[in-house]
Fold this sequence. Notes:
Order of helices and strands: HHEHEHEEHEEEEEEEEEEE
Structural class: alpha+beta
Strand order of the largest sheet: 8-9-10-11-12-13-14-15
Mean pLDDT: 89
Helix content: 10-25%
Number of strands: 15
CATH superfamily of the largest domain: Vaccinia Virus protein VP39
Number of domains: 2
CATH topology of the largest domain: Rossmann fold
Amino acid sequence: MRIRILLAVTAMLLALQGCAGRNYGDGLFHLKHAASGxxxxxxxxxxxxxxxxxxxxxxxxxxxxxxxGSGDGVIPxxxxxxxxxxxxxxxxxxxxxxxxxxxxxxxxxSHLVSFRKGDIFVENFSEATVLTLYLGEALNxxxxxxxxxxxxxxRIVSNTFRIEAWTPDRELRLTSGENAYLWIVPARLEGxxxxxxxxxxxxxxxxIRQGAQFFDGALDLGARRLTxxxxxxxxxxxxxFRFKDSQYRLQVVTGTVGGSxxxxxxxxxxxxxxxxxxxxxP
Length: 282
């Protein structure tokens, strides 16, 4: 047993030594594994992982992919090569930006891919429909407020690291043991809403408490009928929740929200159209 453990440790050390000595760059720039950077050390993203991250996000030809901390450019280049989309990389290290540009030229995707030097906490990346990360949990958490303000429906994929207080919408575990996590930016539903169109109710008021893509609250149906909103969930601008009507029947509501208005229907009465207007804050 000891011999097996020693052999495993020896193999691991040799592998790490091999990584340390390997040049991940090219003839113009020598890039080492775990090279230090502004916020995190550089660890290579495998092409296989890059591909799976993009597939997890469901990247299509109309998407714009932006990679934060793009390193040697593997994710934007894979997005252009295999998915045919426009992609960008934001990287603080000017040498890595230049290396990425050369890598894009070698891959014949320079017409689809661009890289720029910039600080991910300063640069504007709001045009992304798919955002990719391999930054570490601390940086993910710092970015969280900005990410939640992005356009509803934007897909965010992180290699290995989660985002605190934001449950992934999907998770992927590769055969290599690596993980990727997907979040879909939810619209803002929190607040008070005036509703019309609920069958048997002239008007109603809805109060929503939201935490990322999940929400609950209360629905005031008038005549002292107050019912809980249950199992509320957002997928971009689309939402669903359940409530019990005055006959204690479970009703399922699905709809979309955009800014200060919403439109919804009931599963049991799809002809009924529920309209909502957000109440102004006092």
